[in-house]
Amino acid sequence: xxxxxKQRLFIDVGRQEFVRNxxxxxxxxxxxxxxxxxxxxxxxxxxNKQDLLLAILLDGVDTYDAVCDAELADAGDDPVAQLxxxxxxxxxxxxxxxxxxxxxxxxxxxxxxxxxxxxDERRRAGRKRMRDIIDEGVRQELFTTKYPDDCRRSILAMxxxxxxxxxxxxxxxxxxxxxxxxxxxxxLLCPSGANAASQDGRESR
Length: 205
Known about the structure:
single chain, mainly alpha
């Protein structure tokens, strides 16, 4: 269920507060003040700071899924095109929604066990999607790597690291970065013949 307008306000303000000060040093009272509401009004929607953190992180997953879905919509059934689209979606999420990406990278560790379980269940679907694309590419002999799981982890790690250096004022546009990272992903998955596979993926879009 999508957040209500009031919940959206708390999520947006809380995200900024957690990024600015870190979860541990952030105050739920400050978040309520910056949202322009009473503390009791915030507690009506989120019972505590932990509940708000979970809502913020799950909202980030919703955004991530939507960005990747948009990229995959035109990829068809070709694993090469799907892989490139999925990597582009990951890059665009990191460059277009940096605060959400940053919180996912730094604050998931602060979830309590029940929240961590709920969050992991949501993220598991995305991880499975990439694994399925790579497995199908290997089955069709489009991806020639001997180490598909290592490639998958490496691709996700290198994309996640974009949050550490990306500058919106920098020389490279998100689309340019996305294509470069799609090329690098193909280099990992196709250590020989990667350029041909990459070109096929582009032409199928």
